[in-house]
């Protein structure tokens, strides 16, 4: 049986990675887990995000995936290294791919980053960017109101546009030439973000770039799928499967089957 | 001492990879070998290109590099797998990075590839593209007149523009949305190529994309440089060092020192 790529997120955000993996690597089988019962992760403590990520990885490892993709910036920021040292397969996060793409794109050396409070507070993008290129300047902004809008499926409402314009206003005075969408939920609302930032700013989707990084890592470890038929993907979510399925089908442009997973309260012995 | 990235090419073409590595990974030390005495590789037999590549890799291995980059599409097409299995460090070629970028970029699924006769004859891009995404359509064209123009430093002459326009004419009837510059020499003449192809075609530089793949592979193997000072690069070429230095300094925008290396005829015992 074909080994899958396991992709996880706090909710529907990681579907932006799924869509790009489906497009860039159509032969790869995907198993997705969206922790919609506990979204958003952004305002949570690092310890809590680590625990939740660990639980999802444990759940996904039962399917013997060939790779784990932490398709959530908040979880990547706090749990990537820990997960990497604890599973026997490659683990890809979403922060370094976006950082690499920004470094390739920027000509002025000034990069903007937007993300959840947790991601921005961690300084993970700044660290990744400066690790690669110490002279890069970084301006970061937390956008706590964005993820709930996406999880509610409100991608293009007037209110969404207004929230985005107001939130991003502090960034528009800087001469940055690229802005990292440092949250996998943001590609859902990238049109309004592009509108607010203006045409001189290139948006970098950490989701798109992560799909490419997955391709690179699978190639260099000799693990690209050689499927003769198109794979059937599997989707799990911990919250309401109806809303998840609706958003997923709209975003992916195809019918999917969703299996609900309910987190259990441990039995008192 | 800091371990270097060793980069090789048939001549000055690999300097397009060098420039991007210097920009994207300014802390990395580079050792470059341009085989200007035996350029171009494009019209040579696979056996000859393999032998030449092997000789350069043997020369470079004495510096104990942490990675070998075959920054020549012709050499990547015929010698990558052989070199990969014979040295104890990661080996990065220039074909898969360009293929991956094209797959990320194309929306129509029709990708153009231009390269040397050797690269086009090998079918290496078509194989790499279809290995990742079987539904991609590929149109390839050999452009044997381009490399000599670049090695002579004639990047922007009227004759160069005319040769490029004439050579690329067969491609302009196809509805492709991206064109892979499947030769590391071509970024030197990318302006004229862009002009000939028109604004609807995105050019993919295998050189730029390779710098990013180097970044990804070094990161995932924990080998990114943590230099406190900027590295001093080393350049070797097998032909006239004056012409090499002139082209290199113009392209890289900085002074470099070039060490000539003369291939020896073996002694008769």
UniProtKB/TrEMBL annotation, chains A, B:
<dbReference type="InterPro" id="IPR018187">
    <property type="entry name" value="Asp/Glu_racemase_AS_1"/>
</dbReference>
<keyword id="KW-0573">Peptidoglycan synthesis</keyword>
<dbReference type="GO" id="GO:0042802">
    <property type="term" value="F:identical protein binding"/>
</dbReference>
<comment type="pathway">
    <text>Cell wall biogenesis; peptidoglycan biosynthesis.</text>
</comment>
<dbReference type="InterPro" id="IPR001920">
    <property type="entry name" value="Asp/Glu_race"/>
</dbReference>
<comment type="function">
    <text>Provides the (R)-glutamate required for cell wall biosynthesis.</text>
</comment>
<dbReference type="Pfam" id="PF01177">
    <property type="entry name" value="Asp_Glu_race"/>
</dbReference>
<feature type="binding site">
    <location>
        <begin position="9"/>
        <end position="10"/>
    </location>
    <ligand>
        <name>substrate</name>
    </ligand>
</feature>
<dbReference type="InterPro" id="IPR033134">
    <property type="entry name" value="Asp/Glu_racemase_AS_2"/>
</dbReference>
<protein>
    <recommendedName>
        <fullName>Glutamate racemase</fullName>
        <ecNumber>5.1.1.3</ecNumber>
    </recommendedName>
</protein>
<feature type="binding site">
    <location>
        <begin position="73"/>
        <end position="74"/>
    </location>
    <ligand>
        <name>substrate</name>
    </ligand>
</feature>
<feature type="active site" description="Proton donor/acceptor">
    <location>
        <position position="72"/>
    </location>
</feature>
<keyword id="KW-0133">Cell shape</keyword>
<dbReference type="GO" id="GO:0071555">
    <property type="term" value="P:cell wall organization"/>
</dbReference>
<dbReference type="InterPro" id="IPR004391">
    <property type="entry name" value="Glu_race"/>
</dbReference>
<keyword id="KW-0413">Isomerase</keyword>
<dbReference type="GO" id="GO:0008881">
    <property type="term" value="F:glutamate racemase activity"/>
</dbReference>
<feature type="active site" description="Proton donor/acceptor">
    <location>
        <position position="183"/>
    </location>
</feature>
<feature type="binding site">
    <location>
        <begin position="41"/>
        <end position="42"/>
    </location>
    <ligand>
        <name>substrate</name>
    </ligand>
</feature>
<dbReference type="GO" id="GO:0008360">
    <property type="term" value="P:regulation of cell shape"/>
</dbReference>
<dbReference type="GO" id="GO:0009252">
    <property type="term" value="P:peptidoglycan biosynthetic process"/>
</dbReference>
<keyword id="KW-0961">Cell wall biogenesis/degradation</keyword>
<comment type="similarity">
    <text>Belongs to the aspartate/glutamate racemases family.</text>
</comment>
<dbReference type="InterPro" id="IPR015942">
    <property type="entry name" value="Asp/Glu/hydantoin_racemase"/>
</dbReference>
<feature type="binding site">
    <location>
        <begin position="184"/>
        <end position="185"/>
    </location>
    <ligand>
        <name>substrate</name>
    </ligand>
</feature>
């Amino acid at each position: 049986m074909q080994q899958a790529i396991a992709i996880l997120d706090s909710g529907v955000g990681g579907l932006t990675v799924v869509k790009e993996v489906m497009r860039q690597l159509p032969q790869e089988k995907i198993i997705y887990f969206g922790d919609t019962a506990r979204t958003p992760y952004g305002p949570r403590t690092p310890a809590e995000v680590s625990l939740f990520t660990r639980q999802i990885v444990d759940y996904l490892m039962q399917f013997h995936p060939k790779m784990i993709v932490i398709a959530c910036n908040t979880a990547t920021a706090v749990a990537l290294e820990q997960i990497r040292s604890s599973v026997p397969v490659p683990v890809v996060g979403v922060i370094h791919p976006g950082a690499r793409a920004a470094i390739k794109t920027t000509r002025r050396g000034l990069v903007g980053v937007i993300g959840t409070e947790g991601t921005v507070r961690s300084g993970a993008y700044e660290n990744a960017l400066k690790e690669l290129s110490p002279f890069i300047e970084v301006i970061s902004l937390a956008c706590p109101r964005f993820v709930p809008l996406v999880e509610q499926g409100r991608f293009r409402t007037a209110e969404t546009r207004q929230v985005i314009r107001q939130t991003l206003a502090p960034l528009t005075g800087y001469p940055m030439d690229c802005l990292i969408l440092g949250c996998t939920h943001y590609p859902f609302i990238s049109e309004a973000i592009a509108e607010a930032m203006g045409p001189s700013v290139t948006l970098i989707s950490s989701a798109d770039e992560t799909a490419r990084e997955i391709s690179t890592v699978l190639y260099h470890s000799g693990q690209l799928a050689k499927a003769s038929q198109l794979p059937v993907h599997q989707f799990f979510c911990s919250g309401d499967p109806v809303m998840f399925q609706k958003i997923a089908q709209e975003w992916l442009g195809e019918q999917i089957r969703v299996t609900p997973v309910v987190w259990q309260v441990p039995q008192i012995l």
